[in-house]
Protein backbone atom coordinates (compact mmCIF):
# COMPACT_ATOMS: atom_id res chain seq x y z
CA UNK A 1 0.00 0.00 0.00
CA UNK A 2 1.26 3.49 -0.88
CA UNK A 3 0.33 6.69 0.91
CA UNK A 4 1.53 10.26 0.56
CA UNK A 5 3.04 13.10 2.57
CA UNK A 6 4.47 16.56 1.89
CA UNK A 7 8.16 17.25 1.23
CA UNK A 8 8.46 21.00 0.99
CA UNK A 9 6.01 21.93 -1.76
CA UNK A 10 5.85 18.44 -3.25
CA UNK A 11 3.60 15.53 -2.49
CA UNK A 12 5.74 12.40 -2.28
CA UNK A 13 5.08 8.70 -2.03
CA UNK A 14 5.99 6.78 1.10
CA UNK A 15 5.96 3.10 1.84
CA UNK A 16 3.28 1.93 4.22
CA UNK A 17 3.81 -1.79 4.63
CA UNK A 18 5.13 -2.82 8.00
CA UNK A 19 5.74 -6.38 6.77
CA UNK A 20 8.33 -5.30 4.20
CA UNK A 21 11.75 -6.77 5.04
CA UNK A 22 14.71 -5.01 3.46
CA UNK A 23 18.39 -5.95 3.59
CA UNK A 24 20.81 -3.01 3.45
CA UNK A 25 24.54 -3.56 3.16
CA UNK A 26 26.78 -0.73 4.32
CA UNK A 27 24.10 0.45 6.75
CA UNK A 28 26.57 2.38 8.92
CA UNK A 29 27.83 4.30 5.90
CA UNK A 30 26.63 7.73 4.89
CA UNK A 31 23.91 6.83 2.38
CA UNK A 32 23.14 3.51 4.06
CA UNK A 33 22.44 5.22 7.38
CA UNK A 34 20.09 7.83 5.92
CA UNK A 35 18.22 5.32 3.79
CA UNK A 36 17.88 2.85 6.67
CA UNK A 37 16.52 5.56 8.93
CA UNK A 38 13.95 6.67 6.35
CA UNK A 39 12.75 3.09 5.80
CA UNK A 40 12.50 2.48 9.54
CA UNK A 41 10.57 5.71 10.06
CA UNK A 42 8.05 4.46 7.52
CA UNK A 43 7.55 1.13 9.27
CA UNK A 44 9.77 -1.22 7.28
CA UNK A 45 11.92 -3.89 8.88
CA UNK A 46 15.61 -3.39 8.08
CA UNK A 47 18.40 -5.92 8.47
CA UNK A 48 21.69 -4.06 8.13
CA UNK A 49 25.23 -5.30 7.70
CA UNK A 50 28.47 -3.32 7.91
CA UNK A 51 32.05 -4.28 8.67
CA UNK A 52 32.81 -0.88 10.31
CA UNK A 53 36.23 -0.73 8.63
CA UNK A 54 38.68 2.01 9.55
CA UNK A 55 38.89 3.68 6.13
CA UNK A 56 37.67 6.72 8.07
CA UNK A 57 36.95 7.41 11.75
CA UNK A 58 34.79 4.57 13.05
CA UNK A 59 33.35 6.85 15.74
CA UNK A 60 31.15 8.48 13.12
CA UNK A 61 29.99 5.07 11.90
CA UNK A 62 29.09 3.95 15.42
CA UNK A 63 27.28 7.23 16.07
CA UNK A 64 25.15 6.63 12.97
CA UNK A 65 24.60 3.02 13.99
CA UNK A 66 23.53 3.95 17.51
CA UNK A 67 20.79 6.13 16.05
CA UNK A 68 19.50 3.22 13.97
CA UNK A 69 19.54 0.86 16.94
CA UNK A 70 16.83 2.98 18.60
CA UNK A 71 14.33 1.54 16.11
CA UNK A 72 12.73 -1.75 17.15
CA UNK A 73 12.56 -2.99 13.57
CA UNK A 74 16.29 -2.61 12.95
CA UNK A 75 18.68 -5.51 13.34
CA UNK A 76 22.42 -5.08 12.85
CA UNK A 77 24.99 -7.65 11.83
CA UNK A 78 28.68 -6.78 11.94
CA UNK A 79 30.50 -8.40 9.05
CA UNK A 80 31.70 -8.10 5.46
CA UNK A 81 29.81 -9.03 2.34
CA UNK A 82 32.93 -10.77 1.00
CA UNK A 83 32.28 -13.37 3.73
CA UNK A 84 30.27 -15.77 1.61
CA UNK A 85 29.14 -18.01 4.47
CA UNK A 86 27.87 -15.06 6.51
CA UNK A 87 25.93 -13.57 3.60
CA UNK A 88 24.41 -16.93 2.73
CA UNK A 89 23.35 -17.48 6.33
CA UNK A 90 21.52 -14.14 6.42
CA UNK A 91 19.61 -14.92 3.24
CA UNK A 92 18.71 -18.32 4.70
CA UNK A 93 17.56 -16.81 8.00
CA UNK A 94 15.49 -13.93 6.60
CA UNK A 95 13.03 -13.79 3.74
CA UNK A 96 14.20 -10.51 2.22
CA UNK A 97 11.91 -8.80 -0.24
CA UNK A 98 14.39 -6.18 -1.41
CA UNK A 99 18.19 -6.03 -1.17
CA UNK A 100 20.00 -2.67 -1.32
CA UNK A 101 23.75 -3.06 -1.74
CA UNK A 102 25.58 0.06 -0.58
CA UNK A 103 28.58 -1.69 0.96
CA UNK A 104 31.78 -0.93 -0.93
CA UNK A 105 35.30 0.24 -0.43
CA UNK A 106 34.92 3.91 -1.28
CA UNK A 107 37.37 6.54 -2.41
CA UNK A 108 39.21 7.18 -5.66
CA UNK A 109 42.66 8.10 -4.34
CA UNK A 110 42.71 5.25 -1.81
CA UNK A 111 42.24 2.73 -4.63
CA UNK A 112 45.73 3.62 -5.87
CA UNK A 113 47.24 2.73 -2.49
CA UNK A 114 45.14 -0.27 -1.47
CA UNK A 115 43.68 -2.04 -4.52
CA UNK A 116 43.05 -5.37 -2.77
CA UNK A 117 40.32 -3.96 -0.53
CA UNK A 118 38.40 -2.82 -3.64
CA UNK A 119 38.64 -6.25 -5.23
CA UNK A 120 37.39 -8.01 -2.10
CA UNK A 121 34.50 -5.71 -1.19
CA UNK A 122 33.40 -4.30 -4.52
CA UNK A 123 33.83 -7.42 -6.66
CA UNK A 124 33.90 -10.54 -4.47
CA UNK A 125 31.35 -9.06 -2.07
CA UNK A 126 29.00 -8.00 -4.86
CA UNK A 127 29.27 -11.44 -6.48
CA UNK A 128 28.13 -12.98 -3.18
CA UNK A 129 25.13 -10.64 -3.09
CA UNK A 130 24.18 -11.49 -6.67
CA UNK A 131 24.41 -15.23 -6.06
CA UNK A 132 22.26 -15.06 -2.95
CA UNK A 133 19.68 -12.83 -4.67
CA UNK A 134 19.51 -15.35 -7.52
CA UNK A 135 19.10 -18.40 -5.28
CA UNK A 136 16.52 -16.76 -3.03
CA UNK A 137 14.58 -15.11 -5.86
CA UNK A 138 14.81 -11.59 -4.45
CA UNK A 139 12.18 -9.34 -6.01
CA UNK A 140 14.53 -6.37 -6.52
CA UNK A 141 18.27 -5.78 -6.07
CA UNK A 142 19.21 -2.10 -5.92
CA UNK A 143 22.93 -1.36 -5.82
CA UNK A 144 25.29 1.60 -5.69
CA UNK A 145 27.27 2.48 -8.75
CA UNK A 146 29.02 5.83 -9.19
CA UNK A 147 29.37 8.82 -11.48
CA UNK A 148 33.06 7.88 -11.64
CA UNK A 149 32.23 5.25 -14.30
CA UNK A 150 32.00 8.12 -16.83
CA UNK A 151 35.70 8.95 -16.46
CA UNK A 152 36.63 12.02 -18.46
CA UNK A 153 33.68 11.55 -20.78
CA UNK A 154 33.54 14.46 -23.22
CA UNK A 155 29.75 14.31 -23.48
CA UNK A 156 28.24 16.65 -20.90
CA UNK A 157 25.88 16.15 -19.13
CA UNK A 158 26.64 12.47 -18.62
CA UNK A 159 23.85 10.23 -19.85
CA UNK A 160 23.07 6.66 -18.87
CA UNK A 161 23.25 5.92 -22.60
CA UNK A 162 26.88 7.10 -22.90
CA UNK A 163 29.66 4.55 -23.26
CA UNK A 164 31.56 4.04 -20.02
CA UNK A 165 34.49 1.96 -21.25
CA UNK A 166 37.34 4.10 -19.93
CA UNK A 167 37.30 4.37 -16.11
CA UNK A 168 40.34 6.23 -14.82
CA UNK A 169 40.52 4.74 -11.32
CA UNK A 170 40.28 1.22 -9.93
CA UNK A 171 37.28 2.33 -7.86
CA UNK A 172 35.48 3.38 -11.06
CA UNK A 173 36.47 0.12 -12.75
CA UNK A 174 34.93 -1.92 -9.93
CA UNK A 175 31.69 0.06 -10.19
CA UNK A 176 31.54 -0.50 -13.94
CA UNK A 177 32.19 -4.18 -13.27
CA UNK A 178 29.24 -4.21 -10.84
CA UNK A 179 26.96 -2.93 -13.58
CA UNK A 180 28.18 -5.61 -16.00
CA UNK A 181 27.77 -8.34 -13.39
CA UNK A 182 24.26 -7.13 -12.57
CA UNK A 183 23.29 -7.06 -16.24
CA UNK A 184 24.48 -10.64 -16.68
CA UNK A 185 22.36 -11.85 -13.75
CA UNK A 186 19.36 -9.84 -14.94
CA UNK A 187 19.65 -11.23 -18.46
CA UNK A 188 20.52 -14.82 -17.57
CA UNK A 189 18.49 -15.39 -14.41
CA UNK A 190 15.78 -12.70 -14.75
CA UNK A 191 16.96 -11.09 -11.52
CA UNK A 192 15.56 -7.52 -11.42
CA UNK A 193 18.43 -5.11 -10.73
CA UNK A 194 18.70 -1.32 -10.59
CA UNK A 195 22.07 0.43 -10.50
CA UNK A 196 22.40 3.94 -9.08
CA UNK A 197 25.17 6.19 -10.35
CA UNK A 198 25.53 8.60 -7.44
CA UNK A 199 26.93 12.08 -8.11
CA UNK A 200 28.93 13.57 -5.16
CA UNK A 201 26.45 13.01 -2.35
CA UNK A 202 26.77 15.38 0.63
CA UNK A 203 24.92 16.41 3.76
CA UNK A 204 24.74 15.82 7.54
CA UNK A 205 26.52 12.67 8.75
CA UNK A 206 28.62 12.72 5.58
CA UNK A 207 31.95 11.00 5.01
CA UNK A 208 35.07 12.66 6.47
CA UNK A 209 37.11 11.71 3.38
CA UNK A 210 34.85 13.74 1.09
CA UNK A 211 35.73 17.30 0.12
CA UNK A 212 33.01 19.05 2.13
CA UNK A 213 33.92 17.42 5.44
CA UNK A 214 37.69 17.72 4.82
CA UNK A 215 37.45 21.37 3.78
CA UNK A 216 35.25 22.24 6.77
CA UNK A 217 37.65 20.57 9.20
CA UNK A 218 40.63 22.33 7.68
CA UNK A 219 38.98 25.77 7.62
CA UNK A 220 37.90 25.51 11.27
CA UNK A 221 41.41 24.46 12.29
CA UNK A 222 43.08 27.02 10.02
CA UNK A 223 44.90 24.32 8.08
CA UNK A 224 45.54 24.40 4.34
CA UNK A 225 43.14 22.53 2.08
CA UNK A 226 44.41 20.73 -1.00
CA UNK A 227 42.66 22.04 -4.11
CA UNK A 228 43.42 19.97 -7.18
CA UNK A 229 43.71 21.26 -10.74
CA UNK A 230 44.10 24.68 -9.11
CA UNK A 231 40.37 24.72 -8.38
CA UNK A 232 39.32 24.41 -12.02
CA UNK A 233 36.83 21.61 -11.50
CA UNK A 234 33.06 21.25 -11.25
CA UNK A 235 31.00 18.78 -9.26
CA UNK A 236 27.31 17.90 -9.41
CA UNK A 237 26.76 18.00 -5.64
CA UNK A 238 23.64 16.04 -4.65
CA UNK A 239 22.02 16.53 -1.24
CA UNK A 240 21.42 13.37 0.78
CA UNK A 241 17.66 13.92 1.24
CA UNK A 242 17.22 14.09 -2.54
CA UNK A 243 19.19 10.86 -2.90
CA UNK A 244 17.07 9.05 -0.30
CA UNK A 245 13.82 10.33 -1.80
CA UNK A 246 14.92 9.12 -5.22
CA UNK A 247 15.74 5.65 -3.89
CA UNK A 248 12.43 5.46 -2.03
CA UNK A 249 10.54 6.21 -5.23
CA UNK A 250 12.56 3.61 -7.12
CA UNK A 251 11.54 1.08 -4.47
CA UNK A 252 7.90 2.12 -4.76
CA UNK A 253 7.95 1.92 -8.55
CA UNK A 254 8.80 -1.75 -8.28
CA UNK A 255 11.51 -3.78 -10.01
CA UNK A 256 12.41 -3.51 -13.68
CA UNK A 257 10.12 -5.56 -15.88
CA UNK A 258 10.86 -8.02 -18.65
CA UNK A 259 10.43 -5.21 -21.17
CA UNK A 260 13.52 -3.59 -19.59
CA UNK A 261 15.39 -6.92 -19.54
CA UNK A 262 14.93 -6.76 -15.75
CA UNK A 263 17.76 -4.18 -15.69
CA UNK A 264 17.86 -0.44 -15.03
CA UNK A 265 20.53 2.21 -14.52
CA UNK A 266 19.85 5.71 -13.18
CA UNK A 267 21.93 8.81 -12.61
CA UNK A 268 21.21 10.24 -9.15
CA UNK A 269 22.42 13.83 -9.39
CA UNK A 270 21.35 17.42 -8.93
CA UNK A 271 21.86 18.38 -12.59
CA UNK A 272 23.60 21.59 -11.47
CA UNK A 273 27.42 21.46 -11.49
CA UNK A 274 29.13 23.81 -9.04
CA UNK A 275 32.60 25.32 -9.48
CA UNK A 276 34.98 24.25 -6.75
CA UNK A 277 36.05 27.79 -5.86
CA UNK A 278 32.41 28.85 -5.34
CA UNK A 279 31.84 25.74 -3.23
CA UNK A 280 34.76 26.74 -0.97
CA UNK A 281 33.48 30.31 -0.70
CA UNK A 282 30.10 29.06 0.53
CA UNK A 283 31.78 26.96 3.23
CA UNK A 284 33.83 29.98 4.32
CA UNK A 285 30.68 32.07 4.71
CA UNK A 286 28.91 29.42 6.79
CA UNK A 287 31.92 28.79 9.05
CA UNK A 288 32.93 32.44 9.32
CA UNK A 289 36.57 31.78 8.41
CA UNK A 290 38.73 32.03 5.31
CA UNK A 291 40.27 28.95 3.78
CA UNK A 292 44.01 28.55 3.35
CA UNK A 293 44.33 27.17 -0.17
CA UNK A 294 47.07 24.82 -1.31
CA UNK A 295 46.66 24.80 -5.08
CA UNK A 296 47.86 21.59 -6.73
CA UNK A 297 47.88 20.02 -10.21
CA UNK A 298 45.32 17.42 -11.24
CA UNK A 299 45.31 14.28 -9.10
CA UNK A 300 45.42 10.87 -10.85
CA UNK A 301 41.97 9.32 -10.99
CA UNK A 302 40.07 12.60 -10.65
CA UNK A 303 37.80 13.99 -13.36
CA UNK A 304 37.35 17.60 -14.44
CA UNK A 305 33.57 17.77 -14.26
CA UNK A 306 30.61 15.70 -13.15
CA UNK A 307 27.17 16.63 -14.46
CA UNK A 308 24.23 14.25 -14.37
CA UNK A 309 21.60 13.89 -17.08
CA UNK A 310 18.65 12.87 -14.89
CA UNK A 311 15.77 12.96 -17.38
CA UNK A 312 15.23 9.18 -17.30
CA UNK A 313 15.11 9.26 -13.49
CA UNK A 314 12.69 12.20 -13.43
CA UNK A 315 10.49 10.58 -16.06
CA UNK A 316 10.27 7.29 -14.15
CA UNK A 317 9.93 8.45 -10.53
CA UNK A 318 8.28 11.85 -11.05
CA UNK A 319 10.77 13.59 -8.78
CA UNK A 320 13.61 15.99 -9.50
CA UNK A 321 16.34 16.57 -6.88
CA UNK A 322 15.68 20.09 -5.67
CA UNK A 323 18.10 21.12 -2.89
CA UNK A 324 20.38 23.97 -3.98
CA UNK A 325 24.04 23.91 -2.98
CA UNK A 326 23.46 27.04 -0.88
CA UNK A 327 20.62 25.42 1.08
CA UNK A 328 22.42 22.09 1.41
CA UNK A 329 25.62 23.64 2.73
CA UNK A 330 23.70 25.52 5.43
CA UNK A 331 22.19 22.23 6.59
CA UNK A 332 25.55 20.48 6.53
CA UNK A 333 27.48 23.19 8.37
CA UNK A 334 24.76 23.53 11.01
CA UNK A 335 25.08 19.79 11.66
CA UNK A 336 28.89 19.90 11.46
CA UNK A 337 29.18 22.65 14.07
CA UNK A 338 26.76 20.86 16.37
CA UNK A 339 28.45 17.46 15.95
CA UNK A 340 31.91 18.92 16.50
CA UNK A 341 30.68 21.28 19.25
CA UNK A 342 32.09 24.27 17.37
CA UNK A 343 31.20 27.84 18.30
CA UNK A 344 31.41 30.35 15.45
UniProtKB/TrEMBL annotation:
What does the UniProt keyword field contain? NAD
Record carries keyword NAD: yes
Q: Which Gene3D superfamilies match?
A: NAD(P)-binding Rossmann-like Domain (3.40.50.720), UDP-galactose 4-epimerase, domain 1 (3.90.25.10)
Q: Which SUPFAM superfamilies match?
A: NAD(P)-binding Rossmann-fold domains
**Residue span(s) of domain NAD-dependent epimerase/dehydratase:** 22-269
Keyword NAD assigned to the entry: answer is yes
Annotated InterPro entries: Epimerase_deHydtase (IPR001509), NAD(P)-bd_dom_sf (IPR036291)
What is this protein's record name? Answer: NAD-dependent epimerase
